[in-house]
Amino acid sequence: MGEGFIVLVVLAAITAFGVASNDAQFQHPKEDRSRFPPKRYPNAERLKLTAYVVVAASVGALVELVNFGLIFVEASLPAMFSFTLLIVTVALVPIYVLLASTLRCPCCSQHILLQHTTHPKHAKNLNGWLSTAYRAALRQPFQCMYCGQKYVLKI
């Protein structure tokens, strides 16, 4: 048990160093486009599909988290349903990454739904990419978390 804990502490330290190093090397776009008028996002269909994948994975993860809490009061979901939901939720993650890697801001060329730094300049409320995904799923205007350009989803 002690060896596993040491391995986790070492991995956490390496991860923290990697994140800090990435943040130090990341360069935000020079132009702040937050005051520019909203534009129509060119890949609206793909962005909506990716946003729906994020929402589905989030709901699946939330249900699994609640189910995990229910285990302690001995009132959890049926095992087969829970296992299937877990598999679907985990399977949605690479689909999200593949779809999100194709979506970029036309103004600054950064990924709209992939966050490359812990503190994007124009991130709002939730997390930068998560907020954008939920706004796109609800067909609300959203903003690039890097350059600040506002977009609308007109399909």
By secondary-structure content and strand pairing, the structural class works out as mainly alpha
Gyration radius from CA atoms, angstroms: 19 Å
Counted beta strands: 3
Number of domains: 1
Overall geometry: globular
Query: What does the average pLDDT come to?
Result: 82
Biggest sheet layout = 3 strands, mixed
Order of helices and strands: HEHHHEE
**Helical residue percent band:** 40-55%
Give the strand line-up of the largest sheet.
Answer: 1-3-2
Which strand-content bin applies to the residues? under 5%
End-to-end Cα distance, whole Å, is 55 Å
Weakly predicted, low-confidence segments: none
Number of helices: 4
Show the helix and strand layout:
Layout: H1 2-25, E1 39-40, H2 44-71, H3 79-100, H4 128-137, E2 142-143, E3 150-152
Brief rundown of the structure:
The chain is mainly alpha-helical and 155 residues long.
What does this structure look like?
The chain is 54% helix and 5% strand. The chain has helices at 2-25, 44-71, 79-100, 128-137; strands at residues 39-40, 142-143, 150-152. The chain is mainly alpha-helical. It has one domain. α2 (44-71) runs antiparallel to α3 and α2 (44-71) crosses α4. The model has no long low-confidence stretch (mean pLDDT 82). The protein has a 3-stranded mixed β-sheet with strand order 1-3-2. A hairpin with a 6-residue loop joins β2 and β3 (150-152). The radius of gyration is 19 Å and the shape is globular. It has 4 helices and 3 strands.
